[in-house]
Amino acid sequence: MSGSKSPATIKNICCIGAGYVGGPTMAVIADRCPSIQVKVVDINQSRINAWNSSDLTKLPVYEPGLDLVINRARHRNLHFSIEVEKAISEADMVFISVNTPTKTKGLGAGKASDLKWVEACARQVANFAKGHTIVVEKSTLPVRTAEVIKTILEAAQSSLDRDLNSPTFEVLSNPEFLAEGSAIHDLEEPDRVLIGGENSQAINSLAWIYQHWVPEEKILRTNVWSSELAKLTANAFLAQRISSINSIGALCEATGADVREVARAIGTDSRIGSKFLDAGPGFGGSCFKKDILNLVYLSRYFGLPEVADFWEGVVDLNTWHQHRISRLVVKKLFGTLSGKRVAMLGFAFKANTNDTRESSAINIAKDLLDEGAQLSIHDPKVDPKQIAVDLDLPESKSFVSKEFGSNEKLGEGIWCFAKDIADACSFADAVLILTEWHQYSQIDWVEISKKMRNPAWVFDARSIVDSEKVFDAGLQFWRVGDGSERISN
Ligand SMILES: NC(=O)c1ccc[n+]([C@@H]2O[C@H](COP(=O)([O-])OP(=O)(O)OC[C@H]3O[C@@H](n4cnc5c(N)ncnc54)[C@H](O)[C@@H]3O)[C@@H](O)[C@H]2O)c1
Ligand SMILES: O=c1ccn([C@@H]2O[C@H](COP(=O)(O)OP(=O)(O)O[C@H]3O[C@H](CO)[C@@H](O)[C@H](O)[C@H]3O)[C@@H](O)[C@H]2O)c(=O)[nH]1
Prior knowledge:
41% of the residues lie in helices and 13% in strands. The chain is an alpha/beta fold. Strands 3-2-1-4-5-6 form a six-stranded parallel beta sheet, with helices on both faces. Strands 11-10-9-12-13-14 form a six-stranded parallel beta sheet. The protein has a two-stranded parallel sheet with strand order 7-8. Nicotinamide-adenine-dinucleotide is lined by residues 16-22, 41-44, 47, 84, 97-100, 117, 120-121, 139-140, 176, 178, 180, 286-287. Its EC number is 1.1.1.22. NAD(+) binds at residues 17-22, 42, 47, 98-102, 139-140, 180, 287-290, 357. Belongs to the UDP-glucose/GDP-mannose dehydrogenase family.
């Protein structure tokens, strides 16, 4: 596994996986490194078509600023295609940026990462690479996955079918720390870039790419295993802060304290810091739960059950907290949602993304549907077809029977997608805010209250609503983590 090229010879990059990470990451690399040709390949034809769409509102990933970057680089030195083998054969460097979900069956089911897509990529690289190729783990992977990739690549090197021109490989770990909704900012101005590897020339080649726009002091070099583990650890620490603040939020509600005041008081301690202390409906997103469960699995595998239990508690608290919110809504609405309509504002796992993976809205919506609610769901960016998949329930055509008039609430455990906020709130008994979209903080509650059925509630699980305006409109109000007397208890 030797013979790395000098940085200047990196002319062609291939990225396998045109998803939330592969697309934006490669778009920024192409934008900042015009001398490098970047090919992003995927087996999903419709995703590639969407990346190639001339209508930039149809890109498969919604990220502020992404359209501008794509517009500058696409067809210049950024290309999206399904020609995986060709792109690998032309590349000096191959990024693996495919999905690594939690295994659903077999050994480690429910916790360990399913590496079948990563393994498939390694085999494709082994089969089609030419010359010396640097393979970069961009996906989030369990510690020691680089070893698996290396073993597959080395098997290809020693294969009898290969001649003296057999490719040579070097494997690096380069985990991605971007957060959805701020991906372009995070990529253009990262807190750090982490490169783990054994071969300094290969590390320098990858560092050279980032040096086009990232200051040298922000490019951290470690061994491969530290790099892989650092990614899981970063997510575990971030998620732990959210479970911590949500646990304190529940205590605030019980005691009359306000979690926002507590967060401000502790966040000013420079050892604690103020970020990631917003109480909410629980963390969602494709990464936190999956990566912590992976850490839990690894800890048990390496004979550290106490470590595993510690981190598993972060996920357990999050799940408990999501169900706590659903139970609370039911309780406030007199213990039953049968025949009641709840306007659910926000379905994405956070604002500024169309991603719903592991969104708290999914568990909460399922609970409310089980209680017989009619859910009127609004989200400015999420496709209703995705909601149907997430809830495993098709959208109803209408809540009402024309025969009985528009105020008649027929049907239980059903949902409809609302075209706007006012539509979502029509005839609703409660509004439940689950995503912190800016427009939800601007709602005219006097106007909305006229459309609702009294006594009507506003449940603000994101702390973005001005409580005075809600009270002035004659509505009852609950806010996550707020036990103060002004809140309707
Ligand atoms: N989403 C995030 O914000 C984020 C941030 C940092 C790291 N990560 C990690 O990055 C990795 C990718 O995440 P994502 O959110 O981009 O996933 P994603 O599901 O959006 O995209 C993965 C893509 O890989 C493609 N793919 C799978 N196998 C393939 C193969 N053999 N050949 C070609 N294409 C193939 C899939 O079709 C899919 O389009 C994961 O390991 C994730 O944990 C994600
Ligand atoms: O104070 C906070 C901060 C976040 N959240 C929630 O936590 C979840 C995750 O948010 P965030 O971390 O901002 O988004 P992700 O896109 O999931 O990014 C995380 O996961 C990525 C994938 O591994 C990493 O690359 C990022 O560094 C890491 O922040 C979302 O549901 C947020 O609403 C809160 O409830 N309170």
